């Protein structure tokens, strides 16, 4: 492995063609500089300079070696600069996962916008997926941050959870339904209609919150067609296949034939969670979570 200090000495001497001036640039006295060049020549197996009492010139081998030495030192400097940027969180890659309903929230769009504005050289990739799928993706490093509606189980000690708040749940009903004419609807009224939701094996945090809410009121949801996208649930409501209980942000999804109504139950909410690997040290991950916190405060 070539000594980078010796290469830098060679580069400066090749530019100055004078050991005294080169030593001054390198903040060395001339004898140590001469020893560095001699050591490099011994390591390479050829002379780099022809030296006389009046002149210093590059040998043929030195002239041929010079561009390679310069390119290597430039690459080292670029590598060091990238390392500093990575440590500062100004470059790199961030993989963000999210549950489908979260993409419709102001929080999601504002956090992504603010992060990309603050970190323009960072490549951000986003991937929609169920809450339970995000747990393994985060633990395995395929996702850096997950936005979820469902707390991981207690045995997932490898996942760190930050609760960003609770979002009200609302009802999505067909516009020609009597429920659409009401100012608010109750869960009891909704329970008389088929409940359109994600598949039971999808791993949805929204499903979990809705089922818990129904059970708390002694109600059992009537099963209806299912979908794996929040847009699919709303489309099924428009088709008259039942009702849906969705986060409040979903009402920005305007669909002909669908009316959104608040629930009468004040405590009907669903959590909004940010998940990361436990003891995550990436400055990019910390920066994104901090932006999420600030976005919650500014929107809230």
From TrEMBL:
UniProt domain HTH lysR-type: residue ranges: 2-59
PROSITE patterns, per database record: HTH_LYSR
The entry's keywords: DNA-binding, Transcription, Transcription regulation
Pfam families: HTH_1, LysR_substrate
Record carries keyword Transcription regulation: yes
InterPro entries: LysR_HTH_N (IPR000847), LysR_subst-bd (IPR005119)
Protein family according to the UniProt entry: Belongs to the LysR transcriptional regulatory family.
UniProt-recorded name of the protein: LysR family transcriptional regulator
Organism: Pseudomonas ekonensis
């Amino acid at each position: 492995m070539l000594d980078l200090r010796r290469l830098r000495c060679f580069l400066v001497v090749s530019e100055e063609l004078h050991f005294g001036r080169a030593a001054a640039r390198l903040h060395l006295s001339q004898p140590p500089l001469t020893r560095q060049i001699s050591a490099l020549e011994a390591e390479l197996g050829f002379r780099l300079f022809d030296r006389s009492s009046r002149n210093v010139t590059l040998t043929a081998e030195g002239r041929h070696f010079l561009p390679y030495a310069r390119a290597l030192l430039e690459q080292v400097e670029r590598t060091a600069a990238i390392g500093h940027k990575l440590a500062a969180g100004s470059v790199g890659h961030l993989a963000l996962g999210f549950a489908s309903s979260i993409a419709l929230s102001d929080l999601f769009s504002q956090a992504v916008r603010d992060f990309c504005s603050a970190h323009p050289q960072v490549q951000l990739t986003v991937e929609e997926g169920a809450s339970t799928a995000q747990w393994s993706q985060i633990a395995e490093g395929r996702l850096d941050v997950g936005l979820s509606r469902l707390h991981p189980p207690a045995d997932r000690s490898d996942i760190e959870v930050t609760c960003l708040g609770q979002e009200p749940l609302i009802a999505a009903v067909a516009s020609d339904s009597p429920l659409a004419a009401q100012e608010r609807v109750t869960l009891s009224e909704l329970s008389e209609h088929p409940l359109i939701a994600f598949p039971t094996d999808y791993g949805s945090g929204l499903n979990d919150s809705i089922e818990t809410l129904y059970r708390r009121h002694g109600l059992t949801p009537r099963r209806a067609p299912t979908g794996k996208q929040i847009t699919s649930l709303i489309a099924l409501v428009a088709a008259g296949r039942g009702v849906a209980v969705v986060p409040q942000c979903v009402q920005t999804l305007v669909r002909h034939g669908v009316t959104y109504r608040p629930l009468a139950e004040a405590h009907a909410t669903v959590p909004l969670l940010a998940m990361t690997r436990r003891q995550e040290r990436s400055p990019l991950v910390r920066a994104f979570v901090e932006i999420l916190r600030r976005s919650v405060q500014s929107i809230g």
